[in-house]
Known about the structure:
- This protein is of the alpha/beta class.
- The chain has twelve helices and ten strands.
- The N and C termini lie far apart (49 Å).
- The protein binds adenosine-5'-diphosphate and magnesium ion (MG).
Amino acid sequence: MSIVIEELNYTYMSGGPYETKALADINLTIEDGEFIGLIGHTGSGKSTLVQHLNGLLMPTSGRIMVDGLDLADKKTDRRAVRQKVGLVFQYPENQLFEETVEKDIAFGPKNLGLDQEEIDRRVRDAMRRVALDYDKLHERSVFELSGGQMRRVAIAGVLAMEPKVLVLDEPCAGLDPRGREEIMGLIKALHREAGTTIVMVSHSMDDVASLAERVIVMNHGTVAMDGVPRDVFSRGEELRAMGLDVPQAVELAAKLREKGFDIPQGVYLIEEIKHEIEKILGKGGAAC
Ligand code: ADP
Ligand code: MG
C-alpha cells in the first residue's frame, strides 16, 4: 500500500492577516514497508505534512492518494483511510479520556463495530506490542500510570486499529532516556515483525540514524533532502545550515578526520565509528 503526495500546498488561515504557508509543492511517494525518518527544524512543516497522510488535514491544493484512493474524492471512505494510516500525535497521552486502559485502547476498534471477541483480541495484541501487561494493567485508570506507560497506552490505541502505515509525530518527546528506548524498541519491532510502514518525525538524529531506511528533511515547508541515511547524513554542512544536528557518529568521524585520522566518508552509525576507532587503536590494543 503506497501513499502518493502530488504538488501538495497547505496554508493556515488562508486569506487572513495571519496567513501562514506551511507546505509548498511537496511531491513524495511512501512505499509499502518503508521506515522513513522525517526531520526538520521547528516550524518546517513536519506536523502539517503528517496530518495530511490520513486526511486529518486536506490540501489547500494538490493531491494525496492512499492505496490508490484520492482523499479529496467524496466517494473515498475516509474512515477506511484512517484505519489504514494510523497517526500518533505529539504528546498523544493528552488525548486519553476513558476510565480504564482497556476502554481507551478499545475505543477505536469498538467504533469500527467489531464484535467483542475481536475487540478483546486487538486490545491484548496492542498491549503486548507496546509491552504493557494486560492482566496487571487493563483495569487501571490511565491517570495512575507513568508518563512512559501513558504514552504506550496511547500508541496501543492506534495499533488496535491495525493500521498498515503508522505515522508518529515525535513519539519520544518529553520522555526520559528509558522511556525513549522503550518507545524506539517497540517501533522497531513493529516494523521488523509486523512489516508496518513507519513514518517517524523525530528530533533525534541518532534515533533516525539507527532505525530509518530513508530520511526526508523538511525546510521552510519544502522537502530539502530525501535519501538513504548515509547520503543525507554525509551532508552535515547543509543540515547545520538548516538548524539541524548530525548523528553523534558523524560528528565524531569529522573530529577524528580533523585530527588526521583516516575515517571513510559516509560513516554514520555508532557501530561503524566504534569499528573505526578499534582499527585506530589496533586489534587487541584496546583491551579495556
Ligand atoms: P513542525 O512540525 O515542523 O514544527 P508545523 O507543521 O507545526 O511544523 O508548522 C509549520 C508552519 O505552520 C509553522 O510556521 C507554524 O507556525 C504554522 N502552523 C502550524 N500549526 C498551525 C496552526 N494550527 N495555525 C496556524 N499556523 C500553524
Ligand atoms: Mg511538529
